[in-house]
Amino acid sequence: MALIVQKYGGSSVADADSIKRVARRIIETKNAGNEVAVVVSAMGDTTDDLIDQALSIDSQPPAREMDMLMTAGERISMSLLAMAIHAAGSHAYSFTGSQAGFMTDAQFGAAHIKAVNPARVRHALDTGSVAIVAGFQGRSEKGDATTLGRGGSDTSAVALAVALGADVCEIYTDVDGVFTADPRIVPTARRIPAIGYEEILEMASCGSKVLALRCVEYAQRFKMPLHVRSSFSHRRGTVIVPDGVNPATLPNL
């Protein structure tokens, strides 16, 4: 049995049909004999819509209140995904970042993770359920809601995988892995089957948007294998592994 953390971005959970498709994929992974914890982003353009609403009310909203508002998007997607898993005949528990044990500093809008204590997530897995965690968010020492900034759900997923001792962290997006260029713009771009941390960090620092820079740095620090793949297909995607690790040994390839 492997422990797999899966992260689904906003395009993967953009609407009800997409959420149902993701639920089926999660159940397939679980039924293959794996423990599955999931981190989700807000649906589609929800975060941008919330920002627009805030700015229409206050052109300079308080940072604390913005973070309180921003956490709403992931709460919606996590609970709907849990419902979709229930409707498909399996069982799931959803958790906010705070409930999942994400402790951060108090830098609203760009908080850094200080510790992850996923006791409730671990308990849900131990009961045979899927654990679904709202990405991009945590809680400060004072108990305030905080957000991790753009790409924060990727970092949430890697941090949860490290805290749980997962075998791999799968990052699901709308492209089939890491490519030599954006395949939506350059049709001749080639998929990279496997790559090291240093190479993907260089790509991220040069503007590649497949993975957030902090996510890769966190994975490299703790030697957490990453698997970038599309939630819209079952192609192999791209694996990002520490030196000396055979990519073929990763689960769910």
From TrEMBL:
Task: Please provide, in alphabetical order, the Gene Ontology terms of the cellular component aspect for this entry.
Answer: cytosol
Q: What class of enzyme is it?
A: transferase
Q: What is its EC number?
A: 2.7.2.4
> CDD domains under this entry?
AAK_AKii-LysC-BS
Q: Which Pfam families match?
A: AA_kinase
Where is coiled-coil annotated? Answer: none
Q: What does this protein do?
A: Catalyzes the phosphorylation of the beta-carboxyl group of aspartic acid with ATP to yield 4-phospho-L-aspartate, which is involved in the branched biosynthetic pathway leading to the biosynthesis of amino acids lysine, threonine, isoleucine and methionine.
* Family that this chain belongs to: Belongs to the aspartokinase family.
Q: What is this protein called?
A: Aspartokinase
Q: Which organism is it from?
A: Bifidobacterium dolichotidis
Lineage at the top is: Bacteria, Bacillati, Actinomycetota, Actinomycetes, Bifidobacteriales
